[in-house]
Sequence to fold (353 residues):
Amino acid sequence: MDVSFWVWIATLAGLTGVILLDLLLVDAHPHAFGPKEATRWVIFYVALAIAFGIGIHFVWGATYSTQFFAGYITEYSLSVDNLFVFIIIMSAFAVPREHQHRVLLVGVVIALILRGILIAIGAAALSAFSVTFYFFGALLIYTAFRLAKGDEGGADPADNPMVKLAGRFLPTTEHYDGSKLVTRVDGRRVVTPMLMVMIAIGTTDVIFALDSIPAIFGLTQEAYLVFTANAFALMGLRQLFFLVKGLLEKLVYLSYGLAVILGFIGVKLILHALHTTTSLQVPEISTGLSLIVILVVLLITTVVSLIAVRRNPGLISGAQAVVHEREVQSRMGPEPDEERPGRAGDEHPDQED
Fold:
């Protein structure tokens, strides 16, 4: 796939334009996002991704178009799991509803920049060392096993190293001042929780990217497709947060479905590694078959979850209890004798001017 420097520039400019348009249309007048507005934006971003994939088909061919769609669907489905963490972070920082969209927008931009760095590193590693496929494959299988066991890792903002670093060196306040990132308290400039929660969301996403980026490299080794699939998935994720955050608890078997997808792609990567680094006659899994498997697994996971919840509503209560427990742990933060991240230098803040 031959992608020129100017195509990269045009793509980055286009993505930046879409983000600015979103910011101007939605955040010019901060308000709480409703289901109808969220639905319109989700449809817009999904349609944008479909149009982009069709454009790839006409410019570079059906093979790369299929790889993009497989990667986009995989990234979007894996990103749904991020929403649980976003809910916990939003609750821990008590973000006002009318400002949640802006927080997610800036957090996603930070996440996209960090993912871009990881994608560049991953592409370089795969190009230089074929054995990297073994490492990525083993990582995905391990992650699949961890997800199947229900071990999805912590989401406590107090454990986020970037939040700790910012809280240690920046004077902060516990009070919001609208959507401002910096305000004045007692005559001095301090950082508001808006900046801290943006940092928390953007950098926490990197943890998930360590799983999802190797997964998409199992579907395509084209850095351009990997980046754009991640970009469209992340941009649409913000709106999906407002649309389905009340429905997430019903997807009680989502982690099992994602585990199957990651395990499948992990096996695909190892088979590809064996094919390219040895003389063994091993089968390779096509991208088309991968796309079918991903869609079928997601469909089965959704249907089975909804049927199970309908028959046993107590499953939702269990999911709510898990999320509530994580929210409580996030609010508790560190031990009393430790410095609470994001609150350094502002132990007794006054009201903002």
In short: The longest helix spans residues 62-92. Strands lie at 182-185, 188-191.
